[in-house]
Structure formats: C-alpha cells, structure tokens
C-alpha cells in the first residue's frame, strides 16, 4: 500500500485475519488432498478481500494459481470473463464429452453452432478445470465478482457448487451490496469485517511512520477497521498530523469517503494521465492492445502512465493494472458522462469490427446519445450472436440497449419483446416483466399484443402462478382473431396445459371452456407433430365432452406417438400432458416407453427444464413397478436440474407418492401442507395428487375412513391426472367402511371407462374392483383375473396390492393355506420395494393365518447417503461413470469417489453386485 501517494516496493505483511487465514488454509489442504471446494469472501470495499486473495496465492505451494479480476464495463458482455479465465485451458476442450465441448465452444464464440445450454456450459467449465487439475492441483482466485457478466457468473457458480473430488479450489471475492451475488449464497461464505483495534493499530505502525496513540485511536475509529482506509488515510496525512503536532482534518476522509479519496488522487493527476486511466478502467485488464490503440487515437503517449504509478494508482510492475480493484471502479464511476462517452468511442474505434464485433457494439452504445439507429442495429446483431452462444441475459441486455437508441415505436417494442423473451430464457422473470412494461406503451399491432400477453402468461407460469394463465391466453386468442391459425393453436395448447394444472383453482375461465375452444379451433394435425396434436385434442375432449369422447382420441394419439410420430421436438409441458393421457387410459407401457424416449430427446437437446419434468413422469412409472430406489434417483436428478437451472420446483412436493408408499408420514404431511399453500397460485391438480397420495398412505395403514375421505375428494373432481387411478382405492375404502353408495358410483365409473381404455392395467383394475364387491366363486375368479392381468405389465406394485387384497379375502374365508401364498408374495414384494405400510399390513395378515413373519428392518441400502443412493441406482441401471457425471452435473472423479463409498458400505467389490443390494433389477438380465 502507499504512503504519501507513493507505491512501496512490496505490500506490507498481512496483519490479523486469523479466521480468514484458517479458512483459506483448510481449503488449500483440501485441494492438496485431491478434493475440491470453494470459499466466498464478502465485505465492503477496501476491507481486505484482495489482500486475502494474495495471501492465498502466496500459500498455494504446489498448486497452479489462476487469477481473474472482473471489471464493471464488461458486465454486459456475456461469457467474457469466462473466456478470460479459461483461455489457458482451451487446448483441452477436445477431451470434453461432445455435448459439453460443443456448448462451451459455442458459448465462447470459438465455433458457430446452436444455442449453448447454460448448464452444459457450466458442466463443461467444471469438466475442463477438473481435467486440468488432474495434472496439477488448481486454485482459482476471482476478484470483484460483483462485476461478472451473468453467463460467466452462472458457469462459475455452477462449478463452485459441484466441486467434490477434483483437486480444485475456488476463492471468490465479492463486494457487499453490488450485483446479484445470490448465485454464490449456497457456497461457504465468510464475511470479512474491520480489523479489531489492536490489529488495526499494528497495521498503522508498520514502516517508518510515527503515530501518536491518540491520533491512532481517532484514525482506527474513523476507519472502522477498514485496512485500505487506514493505509490510504495514513498516506495522505502529514508527519506532523500523524505525530499529533498538527490537527487532523475533520471529518476524516475515511469510511464512505474512501472512494472520494481516490477521486481526489486521480483528479490531481495530469489530464492525459486521467484520460489514460479512464481507458484502462473501461477495458478488461488483459486487453492492453486495444487500450493502447485507443490511447493513440486520443493522442495519449505511453509516458502518461508514469504519474499514476508514482501516485500509487497503478502497479509499478504491471502499469496497465490498477493497484486495487476499488480504484478501477472509482475511476470509471467518477468520470463525467462526456468523458466516458469519449473513452468508449475511442475504444470502439480501436476494436476490430469482425473479430471483436460485440465489444465494439457495446463501446459504441456507451458512446452514443439519443436516437442512433446504426448503434441499435449493431447491438441487435450482437444480440443474435449472443443468442447463438446461449448468452440469453447478454442477448436481453443488448436488445434493451438497442431499444434505447431506436426511434420507431414498433421496432422499439419488437426489440423489447425479444429482450423479454431472452430474459425468460435466462430464467429472469422479473427482468422479463420489466421489459414487457417498457414495451407496452409502444405496442399497436394485434399480433405483437398477442405475443406480449403470451409472454406475460409465461412469466406467471415461471413463478408457479397458474390460476390466471388460461384466461390470459384465451384473451390473447380473442385479440389475435383469425390472423394466425398456427399461433392460435399454440396459444390454446398452452392454455389447456395451464387449465389442466390449475383444474378447479383456475380463474376467469374453466378447463371445460378451454377444452371446448381447443376442439373448436382444431386443425388437421401437422404430420411432424400429429401425435402431440391428437393428444392435446383428446385431453380437450376429455374435459369438455367427457371420457367417452376423449378416450378414443387419446388412444389414437398414443398409438401414433408409439409409432414414432411427434415425439421429436416435444418438450415441456408435453411430459405433463403425456402422463395425464397415459394414466387416464391406464397405459403404463406407453407411458414408460414414451417418457423414456422423451427423456432421451430432452437430454440430446439440452432441454434441462423439460427433462426435469420428464424425470418426474419416469419416476411415477418406477413407483408403479416397485422400483422405489430408481424413482428416488430420478427425483434427485430432477432436483439437481432445478437447482442448477434456477427454475422453481423440486423438493418433497414431487415425492408425494413415494413418501406415502414408504410410510414417511411426517415428510408426507409437510409436503401436503405445501401443496395446500400452492392452491392460491392455481395448482389445483397438485392438491388432488396430494389427496391421492394420502389415500394410498391411509390404505396401507388400514385407516379406511380417512382413505375414503381423501379418495372421495379426487373422485368428485375427476382430473385426468389421477381421476381414474383413485377408483379402485375408493372401492376398497368404501367396502371396508360400508359406504355402499360410494362403492356403487366408483364401480360404475370404472365399468364405464376401463373397457374403453382396454389395457391390461385397466381391465385388471376393473377385475379387482369387481372382486372387492363380489361373493363366493365369482370373487375368487375376479381376484385371479386381476393378479394375472396386472402381471402383464410393469406394475409390480399394483400386482402386489391385488395379491394383498386377494390374500385378505382368502383368510376371511378360512382358507389359510391359499391365503398364505398370496400374502407371502405381497409381503415379499412390498418389503423389496420399500413400501413399509403395505408390508406391515401384509405381515399382520400373515400372522393371522398362523404363519410366522418377521417385521422387516431397514436394509443396508438405506445406510447410503442420498447422493450415494443416486449414484448406486444409476450404476445399477448400467450407466458409466462419465454418463452418471453428466446426469449429476459433477465430474467422473466425484462419481468414482461416491462409488467407492457405496462399495464399502454395501460390502461389494463389483458394479454388477449393486442391483441386488439396492433392490433393483440387473440391466444385463441377471437376478
């Protein structure tokens, strides 16, 4: 640090900071031990974050250290900081998995290609740095992270959150109160505060200064322990003032006046030096060639840096670097608007219009005033390049700036709508709403107004507020009229999806009205999307005209999709609609196959939000087949995607049926309460799914009256999502409680619908419902029919339930031997699945037949942590370490780390042994 405006030969020793040093030391030891981790240092300007980064670099023996300082003027240039960080490692991109390499190279502008998914860019960043760290442990030091562009911040936060067994450490310094620092909240955050009084005085005493104790007290109190403020203040005071002979200025130029102190230092420099400093502040630290070309255009000589070095503004060893990041930001912020425009104009002129077109466009924008259509056109062109790289927040920023310079109202509105769409793609719904508000006053065209309404509805859906969306989209359809039939069809499909999700909580319309509108607007299905179009029509007819009208169309839709027509390009919300259709037709085979194909398509396209929904659908079919461990792995993967993409969702509300079937009552009831809280935002069908889950839970415990209450609520609403699936549960609960009227109504609906569906699941469910009310030989034949039909599909859970009910019926008729056979099969099945309430119910029935049955205990697989269970389930499914790493957004070394722990805990030595130990089938066909 400097005294009297002069830069010393070296920095003073680090005083105090023992907790911070210990945290840094632990992280460095972790990296040396082959693991990884991240540490965030946050605090006010000048508090010592940069100095601590220097301390970390000095202590990082045997580690490769890479430093990066983000700069304010570059905040709008997407992936700019990431490119500067990764530049030393880009020769390794050929070692990345194909999708990751393509995404990263597209994001950094190294190749042209489709838009880069930001999560794939994050995973590529993690993989690239981890691969480099495998050769030599790596420490990355990131300063002034509040100035990172959004895309770079996303990628680095993603990397920091996923570090585990990677020999890679990341220390991030970020200033309080600036930028969106929430991305780093999930990391280990250490708030750097002012030095305690003894340490602050020790810092003042370093060097040849003689400081009077009373003066030291005043300086320390005024600086609040801020090290930079202490040293800068001591450097500005005369020796007489420090010794107490001359009075101190009042107030002291510290605390909030620290930046003012730097402003005064800069303004005291020659004008040419000030101009050069502004150029340096407006460009990244490693872009000195552009800075010197711009300096030449302004007639600035190289010797203009000398006064800044002498004053301690620039570092003596690297005179293009500011001594402290705060000085850079102060120089830029303190400049007059005209001075900044002049500097940016020079930098724009110095940028290559081909190889550096985006930075040139940005500098031109910063240099312009008023309407400037040429600048706006350049910014729009830059936004297209940003979109192609997957830099959606950068695209939005370029478009918003382009709108600032656009004179034509229609063109301005169009650019703002495009900006809103880009904000939605980046996951920033509030920013999208702000862009829509700006666009609203300029919109006159009906198609453009329709587009605005559609995006407003999308922002509502993004925030999980569904209740008003169908009415908003129906309004958009009305405004559009007959101008664009294809757009009308798309709007109605989106309205139907929202209406089915909202169900009875929808406001301003009803699902039946939306369904009728979809049917009325029916067009000949597009050959490429025929199955999807038919499926939407079938659901529309189901809610508008009744099951008998919807089921045949849904059957044709599923047959078409199974035949290969329409699954390609079908992303969210199609998985939700697919699940509803398959459940409504009791078609588990179509559901499993189509959900699997859709998940593969989502993965190939990098459509992670869509994939997170599809995984929930796949988990549903895993539960039906008794594969609870596989279901939990899919739920966890969906949660991972929600976490890394920033999209809302995830958590226990997605696990309602798993919690019910495994008997985790406290978690189940907490999740049900959360679904009730979401009803006000329009998630009516979620609450009905919760009632269905509670029905399963109470039946497992033999609490039939409670089960009847929950099942009746679903029966009355009759949603496609679970309206049919609840029918056999309602019959069972009604028979056990003597509710003859309820049993008759449920069975009548089951008899009407199951033959229309015609699947083994539907007909087996019908046989089971009839068996529950039949007598004598008829009942036995129906139970046998149900067990046989339900055995024809991947429905191990449903078959076990049928056997339980059959065994209970046999036991009540004193046929103990026959009852034991069915009850034993049910008990073993439920126990293997992990369906604890049903296993206990089957065990109790077995005891009543006179057979001994031990209460099942928790198996070894449940000693695994959630992440270990997830890795084990994926390994059991036959995935390689690389494939598991891609799905979990980690590195193969981290997967290997978890697998080693799985092997130790399960007492196995081979991946082939995992399926049996965790209750999953061997993918190779073994037992």
TrEMBL record:
SUPFAM superfamilies hit by this protein: C-terminal effector domain of the bipartite response regulators, P-loop containing nucleoside triphosphate hydrolases
InterPro entries xrefs: AAA+_ATPase, AAA_16, P-loop_NTPase, Sig_transdc_resp-reg_C-effctor, Tscrpt_reg_LuxR_C, WH-like_DNA-bd_sf
Top-level lineage group: Bacteria
Record keywords: ATP-binding, Nucleotide-binding
Domain HTH luxR-type, chain residue ranges per copy: 857-922
One matching Pfam family: AAA_16
Keyword Cytoplasm applies: no
CDD domains per record: LuxR_C_like
Listed name of the protein: AAA family ATPase
Species for this entry: Streptomyces sp. 900105755
Lineage: Bacteria, Bacillati, Actinomycetota, Actinomycetes, Kitasatosporales
């Amino acid at each position: 640090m400097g005294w009297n405006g002069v830069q010393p030969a070296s920095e003073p020793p680090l005083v105090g900071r023992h907790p911070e040093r210990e945290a840094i030391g632990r992280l460095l030891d972790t990296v040396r031990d082959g693991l990884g981790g991240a540490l965030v240092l946050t605090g006010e300007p000048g508090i010592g974050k940069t100095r601590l980064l220097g301390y970390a670099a000095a202590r990082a023996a045997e580690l490769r250290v890479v430093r990066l300082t983000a700069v304010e003027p570059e905040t709008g240039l997407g992936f700019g900081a990431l490119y500067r960080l990764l530049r030393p490692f880009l020769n390794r991109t050929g070692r990345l998995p194909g999708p990751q390499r393509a995404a990263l190279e597209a994001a950094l502008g190294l190749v042209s290609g489709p838009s880069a998914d930001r999560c794939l860019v994050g995973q590529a960043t993690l993989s690239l740095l981890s691969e480099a760290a495998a050769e030599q442990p790596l420490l990355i030091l990131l300063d002034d992270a509040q100035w990172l562009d959004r895309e770079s911040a996303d990628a680095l936060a993603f990397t920091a959150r996923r570090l585990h067994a990677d020999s890679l450490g990341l220390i991030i310094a970020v200033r309080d109160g600036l930028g969106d620092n929430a991305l780093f909240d999930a990391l280990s955050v250490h708030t750097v505060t002012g030095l305690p009084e003894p340490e602050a005085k020790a810092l003042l005493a370093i060097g040849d200064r003689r400081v009077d104790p009373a003066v030291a007290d005043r300086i320390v109190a005024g600086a609040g322990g801020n090290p930079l403020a202490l040293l800068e203040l001591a450097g500005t005071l005369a020796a007489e003032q420090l010794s107490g002979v001359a009075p101190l200025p009042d107030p002291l130029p510290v605390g909030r006046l620290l930046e003012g102190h730097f402003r005064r230092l800069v303004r005291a420099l020659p004008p040419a030096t000030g101009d050069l400093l502004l150029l340096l502040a407006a460009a990244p630290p490693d872009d000195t060639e552009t800075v010197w070309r711009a300096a030449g255009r302004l007639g600035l000589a190289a010797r203009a840096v000398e006064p800044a070095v002498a004053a301690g503004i620039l570092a003596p060893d690297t005179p293009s670097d500011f001594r402290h990041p705060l000085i850079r930001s102060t120089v830029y912020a303190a400049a007059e608007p005209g001075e900044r425009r002049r500097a940016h104009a020079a930098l724009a002129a110095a940028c290559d219009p081909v190889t550096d077109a985006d930075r040139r466009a940005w500098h031109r924008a910063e240099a312009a005033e008023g309407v400037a259509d040429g600048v706006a056109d350049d910014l729009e062109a830059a936004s297209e390049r940003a979109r192609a790289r997957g830099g959606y927040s950068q695209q939005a920023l370029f478009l918003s700036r382009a709108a600032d310079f656009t004179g034509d109202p229609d063109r301005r509105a169009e650019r703002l709508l495009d900006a809103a769409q880009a904000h939605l793609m980046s996951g920033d719904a509030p920013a999208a709403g702000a862009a829509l508000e700006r666009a609203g006053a300029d919109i006159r065209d009906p198609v453009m107004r329709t587009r605005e309404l559609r995006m407003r509805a999308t922002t509502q859906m993004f925030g999980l507020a569904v209740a008003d969306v169908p009415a908003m989209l129906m309004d958009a359809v009305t405004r559009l009229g007959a101008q664009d039939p294809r757009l009308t069809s798309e709007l109605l499909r989106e309205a139907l999806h929202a209406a089915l999700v909202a169900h009875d909580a929808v406001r301003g319309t009803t699902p039946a009205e939306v369904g009728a509108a979809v049917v009325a607007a029916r067009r000949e299905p597009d050959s490429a999307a025929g199955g999807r179009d038919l499926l939407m029509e079938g659901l529309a007819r189901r809610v508008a005209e009744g099951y008998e009208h919807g089921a045949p169309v849904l059957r044709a839709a599923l047959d078409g999709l199974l035949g290969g027509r329409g699954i390609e390009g079908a992303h969210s919300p199609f998985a939700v609609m697919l699940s509803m259709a398959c459940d409504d037709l009791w078609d588990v085979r179509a559901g499993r196959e189509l959900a699997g194909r859709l998940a593969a398509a989502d993965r190939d396209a990098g459509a992670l939000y869509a994939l997170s929904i599809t995984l929930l659908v796949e988990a549903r079919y895993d539960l039906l087949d008794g594969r609870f461990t596989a279901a939990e792995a899919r739920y966890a993967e969906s949660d991972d995607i929600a976490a890394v993409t920033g999209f809302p969702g995830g958590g226990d509300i997605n696990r309602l049926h798993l919690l019910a079937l495994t008997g985790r009552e406290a978690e189940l009831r907490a999740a049900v309460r959360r679904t009730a809280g979401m009803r006000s935002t329009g998630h009516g069908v979620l609450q009905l799914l919760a009632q269905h889950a509670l029905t399963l839970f109470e039946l497992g415990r033999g609490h039939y009256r409670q089960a009847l209450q929950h099942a009746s609520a679903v029966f009355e609403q009759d949603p496609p999502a679970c309206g049919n699936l609840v029918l056999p549960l309602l019959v069972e609960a009604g028979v056990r409680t003597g509710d003859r009227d309820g049993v008759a109504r449920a069975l009548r609906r089951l008899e009407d619908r199951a033959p229309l569906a015609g699947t083994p699941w539907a007909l087996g469910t019908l046989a089971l419902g009839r068996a529950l009310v039949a007598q004598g030989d008829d009942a036995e034949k129906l139970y046998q029919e149900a067990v046989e039909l339900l055995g024809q599909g991947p429905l191990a859970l449903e078959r076990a339930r049928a056997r339980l009910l059959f065994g209970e019926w046999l036991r009540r008729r004193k046929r103990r031997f026959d009852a034991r056979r069915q009850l034993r099969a049910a008990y073993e099945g439920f126990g293997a699945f992990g369906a604890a309430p049903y296993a206990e119910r089957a065990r109790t029935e077995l005891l009543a037949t006179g057979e001994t049955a031990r209460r099942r205990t928790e198996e070894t697989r449940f000693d695994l942590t959630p992440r270990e269970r997830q890795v084990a389930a994926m390994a059991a499914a036959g995935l390689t370490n690389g494939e598991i790493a891609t799905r979990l957004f980690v590195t193969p070394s981290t997967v290997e780390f978890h697998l080693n722990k799985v092997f130790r805990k399960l007492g196995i030595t081979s991946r082939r042994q995992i399926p049996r130990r965790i209750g999953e089938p061997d993918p190779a066909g073994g037992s």
